Amino acid sequence: MTPLILVLNCGSSSIKFALFETGTAPIAREASMHGKVDGIGGPQPTYGDSRQGTDAVVLDAARPYHSALALIHARVRSCLSDAQRIASVAHRVVHGGSKYFAPVRLDAQVLADLKSYIPLAPLHQPFALEAIEELFRIEPALPQVACFDTAFHRTQAPIEQMLALPWSVWERGVRRYGFHGLSYEYMSHALPERHGELASGRVIVAHLGNGASLCALQGLESVATTMGFSALDGLMMGSRCGSIDPGAVIYLMQIEQLSLDEVAHMLYHDSGLRGVSGVSADPRDLLPLEDTHPQVRTALALYVRRIVREIGALTAVLGGLDLLVFTAGIGEHSDVLRARVCQDLEWLGVRIDPQANARHAAVISTADSPVVVGVEKTNEEWIAAWHSAQLLAAAA
Ligand code: ADP
Hints:
15 helices; binds adenosine-5'-diphosphate; Nucleotidyltransferase, domain 5; alpha/beta; 13 strands; five-stranded mixed sheet; 2 domains
């Protein structure tokens, strides 16, 4: 019997999954199967995986999320041979609060704790918890492990975790937690393999996906990051605003009379590239339009400017920069946006080779560039699978 680990990454309208074979140490980085259900709760949900392609599916309208999970469960099982079985499920959970800084085996008590963190991340935390509960219901004996996006940042000094609010607020747990931790943790494995000693120096990783953040690492540990108390902070994102003067929020609510829900919706869903461009949250839609649509051009210019500003800030925290790495959807695939960011960082010693950048090479800087610039595919699913395998092996 080959035991498999199913990794689930549950978002508001999609569930991504990946299946890893155990039995080798460390387990293989490539998932033996991966896929997602997209458009959950929308008019045209789809199911796609690396073996069967993508097709339209019908989900139970009353419980679309549970129906999507059941679909993944059934389709993955139908692909298993007689010699394979799902031995555990690893979940990407956004928030571990101030209690969970390492992966944990899920039980009723842990689940209750994680539910109590929903107010800390109301738009991200509930989905993984729904999946966990549903799996407990369907297969109570199946071990489940939670891996937290906040955990990797536990090494940060208190000064990076603090907000300049009254001390009592800090004591109540309102702090900068940081996110995308599974992606940055993966980099702490992949970058030394790729760049050797340099990876232990002063490093900034730019995770530029739908959500986006930067992490400053030194000695392969998180020193500072741009996301803070919530996943709204820091960089401009697909539809999220990033850092914003809180006075603007007060103004919108007090003077323009927007309700709390309206402001929250604006900051999470109607801002960022989507809000400024008025067209789309996706650079693939925006780049072809920028010559003819000034608002689109402004949106992309602001997106780049915010990354450059924050790289400047994190470089100051690190006291210099040895290695800059781009990852996630935009970071891995958009040579155009990488080139724009790097061009504005020439003062810092960033020089890129246009051909290497166009090829999405692992190193895109010139041989004489004082700062090495890399492109690295992230693998949050593998980190979750690896933690799950370790945790369950230690408990066996
Ligand atoms: P998520 O942030 O949802 O985990 P990804 O890291 O895969 O997902 O990022 C997805 C985003 O990456 C897409 O919404 C899209 O905006 C962007 N993206 C993907 N490919 C490209 C590309 N070739 N050029 C520009 N942007 C891209």
